[in-house]
Amino acid sequence: KQEVTQIPAALSVPEGENLVLNCSFTDSAIYNLQWFRQDPGKGLTSLLLIQSSQREQTSGRLNASLDKSSGRSTLYIAASQPGDSATYLCAVRAQKLVFGQGTRLTINP
Amino acid sequence: DAGITQSPRHKVTETGTPVTLRCHQTENHRYMYWYRQDPGHGLRLIHYSYGVKDTDKGEVSDGYSVSRSKTEDFLLTLESATSSQTSVYFCAISAREGLNSEQFFGPGTRLTVL
User: Fold this and answer.
1) How confident is the model at residue B95 (pLDDT cuts 50, 70, 90)?
2) What gap in Å lies between CA B12 and CA B22, rounded to an integer?
3) Which positions in chain A touch B99 (Cβ < 8 Å)?
4) How many Cα atoms within 13 Å fall on the side-chain side of residue A107?
5) Nearest 5°: phi and psi at B85?
């Protein structure tokens, strides 16, 4: 059974820092990996989708990498801003989408 | 934003009553999903649909049924609500399965069963 783990569960950093969020999964037989953002009381916003054949994807200040063989993905956020404060979820797609529990990120002004 | 709406957005009901949640999409996507989100469990798949009248069970389907009579609408029904079904319910859509299967989520419905 696929398991997805995100460590740490919570992270607090000062504004302007570059940071990395981690996601690991147990079964490397995946189609793709998706990173989401969730604001309190809101739905999930898709940030990046990485296909299993890709190594990374970029969108603005966000860069996501995928190492399928080691079962790891990272989400890099450059020059963090208070508006980046949210919970970040990763999910891997095999038969179905399996989610991690998320990392709650706080950017302090 | 993907054109997904959910109704109602909030609902309080009593144990034993039937409840129906609606998901409506304007993207004409083939695949639709219902998830629930609970502290300590994350997001879990309840049911999904791969076309009109085509549905299947997910990880936590007990106590739930679904119907899809039109491409744009996917209904989730709790036949007899229980307190354990208090949760936030999310609908999601996808144009395809497998490769390139990006999912987009609705705003959620917060359900409280007293």
Assistant:
1) confident
2) 15
3) 31-32, 51-52
4) 18
5) -95, 5
pLDDT in tens, A20-74: 999 999 999 999 999 999 999 899 999 999 999 999 999 999 999 999 999 999 9
Q: Which residues pair with A107 in a beta bridge?
A: A13
B18, two tokens: 């039937």
The amino acid occupying position A72 is R
Closest Cβ–Cβ partner in A34, A42, A51 for B103:
A34
Residues 6+ apart with CB under 8 A from B75: B20, B21, B22, B23, B66, B67, B68
Residue of B10, B102, B111 to mutate, testing the A interface (most A Cβ within 10 Å of its Cβ): B102
Q: E strands along A8-55, which residues? A: 10-14, 19-25, 32-38, 44-51
How far apart CA B78 and CA B21 sit, in angstroms, is 8
Tell whether B89 is within 8 A of chain A (Cβ). no
